[in-house]
Amino acid sequence: IYIYIITIKGIVITLMLFQTCVHFFLLFDFCADQSEKRPSENLGQVLFGERIEPSPYKFSFKKNLECQSVCLKSYNTEKTEDKAKLEFLKKGMLLNYQHHWIVDNMPVTWCYDVEDNQKFCNPGFPIGCYVTDTGRAKDACVVNADFNDKDTFYIFNHVDITIFYHIVENEAAGARLVAAKLEPKSYKHTNLEKPDCTGPPMSLGNKFNGDIKIPYTYSVKFVEDKLIRWASRWDYILESMPHTNIQWFSIMNSLVIVLFLSGMVAMIMLRTLHKDIARYNQMDSVVSSEDAQEEFGWKLVHGDVFRPPRKGMLLSVFLGSGTQIFIMTFVTLFFACLGFLSPANRGALMTCAVVLWVLLGTPAGYVAARYYKSFGGEKWKTNVLLTAFLCPGVVFADFFVMNLILWGEGSSAAMPFGTLVAILALWFCISVPLTFIGAYFGFKKSGIEHPVRTNQIPRQIPEQSFYTKPLPGIVMGGILPFGCIFIQLFFILNSIWSHQMYYMFGFLFLVFIILLITCSEATILLCYFHLCAEDYHWQWRSFLTSGFTAVYFLVYAIHYFFSKLQISGLASTILYFGYTMIMALIFFLFTGLYVCRVKVQSLAKLQQNLVGRRGPLLVVSVHASTHCVPHYHRKIKTQGYWSEMIFCICTAFKRVSINYISLVGHSVLILSSLILK
What we know:
The protein is an alpha+beta fold. Among the domains are: 5-239, no CATH class; 312-444, no CATH class. It is built from 20 helices and 18 strands. The strands form seven sheets. Strands 4-16-13-14 form a four-stranded mixed β-sheet. α7 (312-337) packs across α10 (380-409) and α15 crosses α17 (570-596). The two termini are 44 Å apart. Its main location: membrane.
């Protein structure tokens, strides 16, 4: 339940009630006001199931109120309808259902003491609590010693609201609200006509009998606070959340993984490959070039590394959809870091993501068409249609099934039919035409030219060892990227399923960058090992290596479901795993795209810079897709080799707007400064 305050000329204040589930709100039978008009919600709020309803709480600015009556609910336990309402209210208290109120677009917080003399401000408070038949107080019942009757429910039917404000000089409004806090209480109210907010708590026995009356009351107090500025009024909520230390631990854990992988990649690129190239240049030490080729397995596959992959149509479609998701994620996180998508702008994060996805159909169509053409495909119509409808269609079908379940359960979290039609219109009328336009330009442009010719007869792949086989390599490749993000996943899942506030977009963006680097470096290592084993089928393997991180995400979501959540019922379980599958698919396409995208321009740049003097030479190109692709070239000059190699690596990674060497260097500097600090 949410509360929203509208200020009229800075004097009169009207409260309006926001509720996440209208159906549940009506079943709880809380006080309501049908005279006020419902405010409208944006697309993000509708997708998250937030609904806005008028509230009967009304008061004036700077006018304190004491024990004001809101409404009186009467129940006859002999009536089936009233008994069902009480049973539902009892079930809500047993499951620790909570109110979530908003004042001036700020959450009304319940602040209480926790361990180590710390104060935690919760943006919600429970509707009640329960004392078990053994006398153990559960959840919020521990805050009051009077809650001691066994097998009894206690309902919080009174709230003490404290509004903090400060006077603004030279403004017509006069004052600004900077904080809102409350303390839930329970009173039986012996005098129902004139409640005085005294007496024993309002208790409900586990077995109902007779008539039951529940009065709802509230008190309001205004306090001037000259220290809190309006721009920083969220700080007291965010600072009370004990997540910052854990976030820094997550960043340090991710940086250690990145530094480890960077060292491995540097050792391979600047030692192993240099040693291979130097030995190959010493033609005097070998009898013939054939002997040199047999000595190094990765030299033998130069004529097959650019062979079109199997199922090239599906891979190109995945690459196109992944491009759409990658740009959407990057731009959304960037704006969130700048504060445009803060928790104060409710629904803005989801709205921004959906709008960006709709408008990014052109890059998806272009990338899919360009890669499909480079794979030698000719069914361009099928490619365009699959890019526009395959992945979005799977997501929409899953979402539609979840929506049907919500409709069947009578939940207001179900998307209205009009909103569903609007989303379909955005998809078919904007995203699909933009995808067709991008595909048109992609097919119109010439195909990607490879630096070496592909052999007509495929080379036979020798028998592989266990760790160079496809499945073990793919499974191992997703472990390290998942290790960088699993702590952030805990907070994200809490934000989605436990209705906790998520505001650490700076940490999330940093982990996002670290994830990209980790996926790239893990793929470099595994691709090098596979090429050394003379296995040139790297396209799908590279996509699935980092994409397998989504499988670990799915496993973690299953663990989170059984260990952290208390979800009961078949419908709720289907909803959880249905939405989790959507997130896993999006994560799979996003991570798989980044390391599988091939930049042939970087290969051409390497061809221009690696100028030799005599004889053919096999070198390894590091390009934007972070793969090791061998091809023949002239012999490298011994003088200036290191500068040429570093220049080529930097040039390749600039193709994806990420200076890899600089980023790793900055990571080392950040880690060093943190250790020194």
